[in-house]
Design a protein that fits this description.
Blueprint (H helix, E strand, L loop, with lengths): L2 H26 L10 E8 L14 E5 L2 E11 L4 E8 L8 H15 L6 E7 L3 E8 L5 H6 L9 E3 L2 E2 L16 H11 L9 E8 L10 H11 L1 E7 L10 H9 L5 E2 L5 H14 L3 E8 L8 E5 L2 H4 L4 E3 L4
Parallel strand pairs: 4-5, 4-9, 9-10, 10-11
Antiparallel strand pairs: 1-12, 1-14, 2-3, 2-13, 3-12, 5-6, 7-8
Helix pairs in contact: 2-7, 4-5, 5-6
Length: 323
């Protein structure tokens, strides 16, 4: 390497180090948010191997609200926030054959992630309307019995495989056996979760094929209601692949925009177990991030990213509400 190239390379390295130092200094000297202006979001960060990242600081992060820079005032890691978990199980006709698998997976997950004295669980099933088997309760020993009450109730004229026959007039769109998925998510986030408390992780674990056939509402209002209530939706796509398909796009959207993830294990037991284990990791460590500023629109998009080069080397995957 010539001495000119060497000088040029050293100059670029110095400039990069200077810019990084300036960025960190600026982040460290950011003004605190006034109490009446401070908002917060819950963030989960895992590395490429699925391990929880627990060393993020304000200077490692950049946040935009509606495209405008926001001030991150505080970043606090909690090894485990108290959990409010609502298990939402699709019991419509398309789920008839996979419902026992969904129920077994829900029992296993609740037992794996909840801790007595800290956490609460609710169980809701739905077809054309939600069935609130149990609202949030700290009686964790009773969770298996609640989940056991989730049942598929065949509508009149049902012959199997999601097919209903009859000689009378066509049934209404929102008939027993149909799937009001978006209505169920909206109702569950409104009716299960009370006034939003500080420093509790609110999670809705959804088992469904993601196909809505009878809601009066749409997907976006369901997402907006979940974000309003601070509820992260984690989805497990379930369907009898011989008869039905999973709408991955719908489940990804409702999960990723509310701070959760969606997984599609198919009919493989080991893949279902791996998906639930992955989701459980997202509940083992959470950041509460305080911020202010940015766009003041009611529905402004949140864009959070890791800007620290060293932390970016861990290939972080961030889960947080997007609006």
């Amino acid at each position: 390497m010539s001495k000119y190239k060497l000088y040029f390379t050293l100059a670029l390295m110095a400039l990069g180090a200077f810019n990084l130092a300036v960025s960190r200094a600026a982040a460290q000297t950011q003004s605190s948010c006034a109490p009446d202006q401070r908002k917060q979001l819950i963030l989960t960060a895992v590395d490429k191997d699925g391990n929880v990242i627990d060393k993020l600081r304000a200077e490692h992060l950049s946040l935009k609200v509606g495209g405008s820079p926001a001030t991150i005032s505080d970043v606090v890691f909690h090894a485990r926030l108290p959990l409010d978990l609502a298990v939402l199980i699709d019991a419509s006709a398309s789920q008839e054959t996979v419902l026992p698998v969904s129920k077994a997976a829900a029992r296993s997950f609740a037992a794996q992630v909840t801790a007595a004295g800290q956490d609460r669980v609710a169980v809701v099933s739905f077809s054309n309307k939600p069935d609130y088997i149990q609202l949030l309760s700290s009686d964790l020993a009773a969770v298996p019995a609640w989940i056991a009450q989730v049942k598929f109730v065949p509508p009149p004229g049902y012959v199997g495989g999601g097919v209903v026959v009859g000689t009378g007039p066509p049934p209404p769109i929102s008939a027993p056996g149909s799937t009001s998925l978006w209505d169920a998510i909206r109702s569950a986030t409104q009716d299960v979760f009370d006034a939003q408390p500080e420093n509790r992780h609110r999670v809705l674990l959804l088992f469904s094929d993601g196909t809505d056939t009878s809601s009066s509402s749409k997907l976006n209002p369901a997402i907006e209601e979940a974000n309003k209530q601070g509820v992260a939706v984690f989805s497990i796509g379930m369907a009898d692949s011989k008869l039905f398909s999973v709408d991955q796009e719908n489940l990804k959207k409702v999960s990723e925009q509310t701070g959760g993830i969606a997984r599609f294990p198919g009919n493989k037991k080991e893949k279902l177990e791996a998906a639930l284990t992955e989701i459980s990791r997202y509940l083992r460590g959470n950041y509460v991030i305080g911020y202010c500023g940015g766009d003041t629109k009611a529905r402004a998009r949140l864009q959070l990213e890791v800007v620290d080069p060293e932390m970016r080397n861990t290939k972080p995957v961030l889960a947080y509400k997007r609006y």
